[in-house]
What we know:
Elements: H1 2-77, H2 79-86, H3 93-104, H4 113-120, E1 123-129, E2 142-145, H5 154-161, H6 164-171, E3 178-180, E4 196-201, E5 215-221, E6 240-244, E7 250-253, E8 261-265, E9 270-273, H7 287-292, H8 305-313, E10 320-324, E11 327-336, E12 341-348, H9 350-353, H10 357-381, H11 383-400, H12 416-517, H13 523-541, H14 545-565, H15 570-621, E13 629-632, H16 633-650, E14 656-662, E15 669-672, H17 674-690, E16 695-704, E17 707-714, H18 746-756, E18 760-766, E19 770-778
Parallel strand pairs: 14-16
Antiparallel strand pairs: 1-2, 1-5, 3-4, 4-5, 6-7, 6-12, 8-9, 10-11, 11-12, 13-15, 16-17, 17-19, 18-19
Helix pairs in contact: 1-10, 2-3, 11-12, 12-13, 12-14, 12-15, 13-14, 14-15, 15-18, 16-17, 17-18
Amino acid sequence: MTKKKERFYRIKWRLLAIMLSIAIVPLLIVVTFSSIYMTSKLTDNSKKYYSTLINQVASNIDFVYEQYARTLTNILKIKNVADGLAHPKFASKQEEIEIDKKIIGDINTPGGLRETVEEKIDGYFFIIELDKESLIQESKVVIHTTTMSNQIRPNEVDNIISDPLFLKLKSDNSLRMVIGKFQKNTLSGLNDTRPVLIYPIYMNPPEKPSDTFTKFIMVLLNEDIMPKFYYDIEDIKYGTLYITDQDGNILNANHPSVSDYYSYDYYKRKYLLEDNKKYDKYEKMSFFEYTLLNTDEKVLNSLDFELIFNDSERENNNKFFIKRNKVKYQLFASMAPTSNCKLIYLFPVYQYYKTIIPVIIYLSVIIVVSAALLVVISLAISGKVTKPIIEIADNLKIITDGNVNVPELKKTQNNEIGILVDGFNQMAGFIRKYTNYLEELVSERTKELLRSNEDLKSANEKLKEQSEFKSKYLANMSHEIRTPLNSMIGNNEYLLRSPKSLAFNLSEIAEEILELIEEEEDEHIKELKEFLKEFNELVLQKSDADLSDFFVKKLINIFFNIKNSYKSEKLVNIEKLIEETSDTYYQEKVIQIKALANANKNGKYLLDLINSVLDISKIEAGKIELTLKKVNLQNFMNDLYSNAVAYQKSKNKERLIITKSIQNIDRESYIFDELKIKQVMLNLISNSIKFTEEGEVIIEVTSRDNYLVFGVKDSGVGIKEEEIGSIFKEFGRTSSTKNIEGTGLGLALSKKLVELHKGKIEMSSVYGKGTNFFVYLPII
Length: 780
C-alpha cells in the first residue's frame, strides 16, 4: 500500500512536469525570437528617428542664426546708426551723449535701433567701438547699449577682445558672425554663463586677409533662447542633448547635470533642482528614466569630437556607444553648418526596449497563468487523499508564523487521520486561549504608551508653532522698527551735515564778491572786504548754523549801507549774488524744518508701534486686567464723535462726512472697560477715515441678542475677499493699504481687547465700495 502511494506521488509530479514542458516551452521559444526580431527593427527605426530629430534641432539653430545675422545687418543700415558709427572722435561729453542718443534712438521711433532690438533681439544688445575714447566713462572704448539693467563695464572689454571666441573672428574676416561662449571670468556675474553673438562691423568691405575691424556688435543671448530650439520636440526629453559652439564649449543642455539635482518629487513625478528649487520642465518621466539622464557635462571631456564629427559628415554618426555609471548610451551627433554649432545627444539604449517590455510581460503572464491552471488540475487529482494532511501542515505553519486564530479542522475520516485531526484541534484551542490572554495584556500596555506619545506629540506641535510664530513676529518687528529708524538717522545725518555744507557754499559766494570788489579802493568798500575775509577765516576754523545765520544777516546789512552811500556798476552783480545767497539760505532752513518734522513723525510711529507690541504682549501674558464700570453711552458716543471729527480735520478730508447713530438702546449706562473699548473704536474710526477720501463714515451703537453692538461703517476703498482673513493678524496689511501709514498692529490689538471682554469683532467689505466693522460686547 505504501509503495503504491509513493509511486503515485512520483507519477503526479512527473506528469505535471511533462504537461508544463509541452505547453510552456513552445511559447517561450516564440516569445524569445519575436522579442529579438522586434528589438532589432525598433532599434534601427529609432536610430533613424533620433538622427532626424537632432538634425532638425541643428536646422532650427541655423535658421535663428540667419535671422539674427539679417537683423544685425539691417541695424547697421539704419541711417542714424551708420552716421553715428562714422562720426569721428568726440570733442566733448555733450557731443558723445548726443551721438549715443542718435545711435540708440527712442522706442517710439519706427524702424529705429531700439525698436528693432526690442522686437527681434532676445538678449542684451551692445555696440562696442574700439577706435574711440569715451569722455564720459573715461575709457579707451565706447559702449552703446539699449539696456540699463545689464551693463558691460569698459574694463571687461579688454577681457572680451582677448577671449578666444573674439580672436577667432578677428583673425578671419571671412566669418560673418560667431556664436559661442566666453571663457570663465571674461564677463562678471550671470553674463559669464550666457551664449554670446559677436558681429563684426567693417566700415569698408575687407579686401585682403589682413583687413580687420575696430567696431563690433555683441549680443548676450537670454538663457531661455536655446531651449526654444527643441522644447516642441517631445521625444528628445528621453535623452540628454548638449549644444556646443565650434570649440566644444557647452551653450545649453536639455536637462540639468547630475551636480544640479537636489531630489526627486515622487508625488509630482519631477526632479527638484538644487540652485533655486525649481522643477525640471519635463513631465511624466519615471524615477528610473531620470536616473538614466544623469550623465553630467564631464562626459563631453572624454569624447573625441574630431572623430565624431568627421564620421557625422559621412552619415555614420549613430555608430558610437559609450558607457557611464553602468548605463549604455548611443551617441548621435550633428553639425549646424551655418552657425558651426555642434550637437551631441546621449540616448539611453534602455529606451529602445521600453515599448517591447510590456509585450514580453503580457506573454509571460499568459505563460504563468497556463502553468498555474495545469498545476491546479494536477493537484485536484490527488486532493482527496492529501488534503487533510496538507490542511494540518498549513495550519501548523500559520501557528508557527504567529497567527493562532486558525479555523477548526473538519473530521471526515474515522481512522488514523481522524485521530490526528482531533489532536490538532485540541492543541490549537489551548494555544489560542493562552495567546489571547497575552494579547489583551499587551494591548492594555500599548494603549497607555500611545496616550503618552499623543500627549508628547501635542506638546511638541505647540512648541513648534510658538517657535515659528516667534521667528515670523521678530522678522516683522525688525522690518517695522528698522524702516522709521533709518529715516530718522538719515534726517539727523542731513541736519548734522547741512550747516557745514551751507557755510562752505557761503564761503564760495564770499570769494566771488571779493573778486568783484578787489580793485575798488573806495572807503565804503573797505568794511565789506574786511568782513568777507574774516568770514572765510572763520569757516576754516568752524562751520555751523550760527555762522551761516551771522553771515547772511551781516552781509545784507553792510551791503545796503554801501548801496545808500556809494554808487558803482559792480553793485548790481553783488546785489544779485546776495539775493541768491539769501534764497539759498532760507530754502535750506525750510528743508531742515521738514527733516525735523519727518524725524518727529517717525518717532511717534515707533512709539505707537512699541506701545501696541507691549499691549499685545501683556494680553498674551495675562497681565492686562479689565476695569469694568458703568459708562454713560451718550457721553461715550459724543467723545468718539469729537475725536473722529478732529482726526478728519487733521487729515484735511473736507469731502468726508462723519455721523453718529444710537438706536434700540433701553438704558442710559452699560458696563465695560471704557478706556480699552475707546481704544478699539478710535482705531476702527481712524482706519475708516484714512481709507475713505469722500463719502461718509458712520459711528453707531445698538443692542441686539444680549449684545451691545458698536459699528463703524465707511464708503472707502474696501478690502479684497482673499485678503480679509489676514487683516486681524500682526502686521497684516492689504494691497490697497500698503502705502498708507500705520503699524499693522491696530486690528490685532483691537481683536484681543474685545476678546478680553468675551466679545467678538465681525466685519464685511466690498472692494471699492466700503467696509463695515462691528464690535459685540456681552451685556452685563
